[in-house]
Design brief:
Layout (H helix, E strand, L loop, with lengths): L1 H29 L2 H6 L4 E6 L6 E2 L5 E13 L9 H8 L3 H14 L5 E7 L1 H9 L5 E10 L6 H4 L2 E3 L2 H6 L8 E3 L2 H5 L1 H4 L4 E7 L5 E4 L15 E3 L3 H11 L4 E7 L4 E8 L12 H9 L9 H4 L9 H11 L13 E2 L5 E2 L9 H7 L2 H12 L7 H14 L21 H8 L22 H12 L3 E3 L4 E4 L12 E3 L7 H13 L16 E7 L7 E8 L6 E7 L9 H14 L5 H9 L5 H8 L1
Parallel strand pairs: 2-10
Antiparallel strand pairs: 1-8, 2-3, 3-4, 3-5, 6-7, 8-9, 10-16, 11-12, 11-20, 13-14, 15-17, 18-19, 19-20
Helix pairs in contact: 10-20, 13-15, 14-19
């Protein structure tokens, strides 16, 4: 019995050794997987970065291009003695800077590549290739260049990926670049492409000996897709030229499509300043500027709309049946009930059209009270909620849903807001400032341009967007081609359009100086109160009156009356876009000479 057990143990032992021997034979002779893994210590995996997609304007002109550069990398464990002065002379840094970068690389990892110098031109890369610098190698990258040098806030910039982005998206690795703002951020996944990898054999000195396994494990990068924007480069450049020396925004939209023709914010910055080795220094300089050039006022600012908002109250009044176009109200230099609302000098309005033409404050105070005191509602709170719903249907108090990251919703107060503010004790006189676009109302220049487009379309709009076409298989989001309807019937828009037309073309109108023969501009001025200084100048318009091709909103902080600065800027943009030239050079010179004082920003700087 004992001998049988011994034989069984012997057989088991032989079987185990046989399995081990067969497994070793398979690993070492037949299967190359472990052999390949064992050779990892002489392989270098180099990321192949794709060219970033280019951005064109609507007419095919380059707004953003990609330029070839190289990053100098180091693998600390592969370093040998080298001519440091020669390297420093080639790449343009001091020996102390090189030493600091190498020490940083050692602290990070001896085996993992680290960046020593970014954005070397091709000439420097070729000089490095001619010398023997063990442990160093270069990686192809692309950086942005801007032929027009316009649209800093619109186009955005590209920078090194930060930790939150690394944690959010597994595509990125430390040292990768990512869109940080503007279109670069909004269309990052479209523009970035797909990385590849190249596996190189490296000798004991860290010098590349060629591709591993004839490149069968290499993958090629896939270039990012090019994008055609909706922007008109020439019109964008003109807007930025006219905004120089001012704080504010210009937005222009094609009403029939919602395509954004211009998105200019001032002050802005030269987009080339956010490229290359000086990006950190330039970024800190921009951040330290009290006028905040990195702040895109077109979509992020919250301004009181001022008198441009009166047209919405007129439309709501007609839809609610408390106003007819021929309804008359008098004006004695303002609305005199309660604390009253002042008005400028003009003849007493005869009807709604005249009220829009002369921008009468008193007329729209009457209209607003009729809306809120409408007896078909049980109380003012219910009426206020109805009013709020109407206003939001025009795109106010909510994000429009554009393809632009950072779009802010603005603010439209509701009954709950006033209940909290006034402890439930308020009435239509309490909120009378809403009638003329003041009080708690806040909106972005994009929303005001969208209002102009909505009136141009007689009651509907398309969600504003900045991309016209993505080159390749990607489709533009279908929501941009869907009509968004207001809660006001189309027929009610005609008196408003007539009033806006007369404001430009008939004596007594508030915007006569922007008239251009043959263009049929329809416009509405606004002078928005500003607690920090002079009133803001604002103007919205569209042209031509029938089959409109462009809608514009201009907002200039501390600019004074709407007709002073904002209206001429809009008029010049429309003339350029519709006629292809500007005939009023004197007006261009006047606008460019208007430099606005900003005591609020200056005080911030001096603190």
């Amino acid at each position: 019995m004992g001998g049988q057990r011994v034989k069984i143990l012997q057989l088991v032992t032989v079987a185990v050794f046989a399995v081990i021997i067969l497994r070793l034979f398979y690993i070492q002779v037949i299967d190359s997987e472990y052999k390949d893994k064992a050779s990892n210590n002489v392989l270098r995996y180099e990321v192949q970065y794709p060219p970033r997609g280019e951005i064109y304007d609507r007419n095919g002109e380059f707004l953003v291009q990609s330029r070839e550069v190289y990053d100098l990398m180091v693998v600390p464990r592969d370093l040998k003695e080298f001519d440091t002065l020669m390297m420093c002379a080639i790449v343009g840094i001091t020996p102390d800077k090189l030493k600091a970068e190498l020490e940083k690389a050692y602290r990070y990892s001896r085996r993992v590549p680290s960046v020593v110098i970014k954005h070397l031109p091709k000439e420097d890369k070729l000089k490095l290739d001619e010398r023997n610098f063990p442990g160093f190698y270069t990686v192809y990258r692309t950086i942005r260049s801007y032929p027009r040098k316009i649209g800093g806030n619109l186009l955005g910039y590209v920078g090194e990926v930060d930790r939150p982005a690394l944690e959010r998206d597994g595509y990125y690795r430390s040292g990768d670049y990512i869109g940080k703002s503007g279109m670069e951020l909004a269309y990052e996944k479209t523009l970035r492409g797909e990385k590849g990898v190249k596996v190189n054999m490296v000798d004991v000195h860290g010098m590349a000996q060629g591709s591993y396994a004839d490149g069968i494990y290499d993958t090629l990068p896939t270039a990012g897709l090019a994008v055609t924007s909706t922007i008109d480069a020439a019109l964008q450049a003109l807007a930025e030229e006219l905004l120089d020396g001012k704080v504010g925004s210009v937005v222009a939209i094609e009403p029939s499509t919602g395509e954004i023709l211009v998105m200019a914010s001032s002050p802005s910055y030269d987009p080339d300043d956010m490229v290359g080795r000086e990006i950190g220094r330039n970024y800190n300089s921009l951040i330290g500027n009290p006028r905040n050039p990195l702040f895109n006022r077109s979509v992020q600012a919250r301004y009181p709309p001022g008198s441009t908002f009166k047209v919405i109250n007129g439309l709501i009044g007609m839809q609610e049946g408390v106003l007819t176009p021929d309804m008359k109200y008098s004006c004695s230099m303002g609305y005199t009930v309660g604390r009253g609302v002042k008005c400028h000098s003009h003849w007493p309005p005869l009807n709604l059209v005249d009220a829009v033409q002369t921008s009468c404050n008193a007329y729209f105070c009457y209209v607003m009270r009729n809306i809120l005191d409408n007896r078909k509602y049980s109380n003012i709170k219910e009426a206020m909620e109805v009013w709020n719903d109407y206003v939001q249907s025009f795109g106010f108090g909510t994000r429009l849903g554009s393809d632009f990251i950072g779009e802010q919703p603005g603010f439209v107060p509701d009954a709950a807001y006033y209940d909290k503010k006034y402890n439930g004790r308020w009435n239509s006189l309490t909120v009378i400032s809403l009638s003329i676009g003041q009080g708690e109302l806040g909106c972005s220049p994009l929303q005001m341009a969208n209002l102009a487009a909505t009136i141009a379309n007689r009651g509907h709009y398309y969600i504003p967007h900045v991309v016209k076409e993505i080159h390749g298989d990607q489709e533009i989001d279908e929501r941009f081609s869907q009509k968004q309807f207001t809660k006001v019937d189309p027929e009610h828009f005609e008196p408003i359009v007539e009033g806006m037309y007369r404001a430009v073309h008939i004596p007594g109108g508030t915007a006569q100086r922007v008239r251009v023969d043959g263009l049929d501009i329809c416009g509405k001025t606004g002078t928005a109160q500003n607690p920090h200084g002079a009133d803001h100048s604002t103007f919205m318009c569209f042209a031509p009156r029938e089959n409109p091709r462009i809608a514009v909103s201009v907002y200039i902080e501390n600019g004074g009356f709407g007709a002073t600065i904002a209206a001429p800027i809009a008029s010049l943009l429309i003339e350029q876009y519709l006629n292809g030239e500007i005939t009023r050079q004197y007006l261009v010179d006047q606008v460019k000479s208007m430099k606005v004082n900003y005591p609020y920003y200056d005080r911030q700087q001096n603190r």
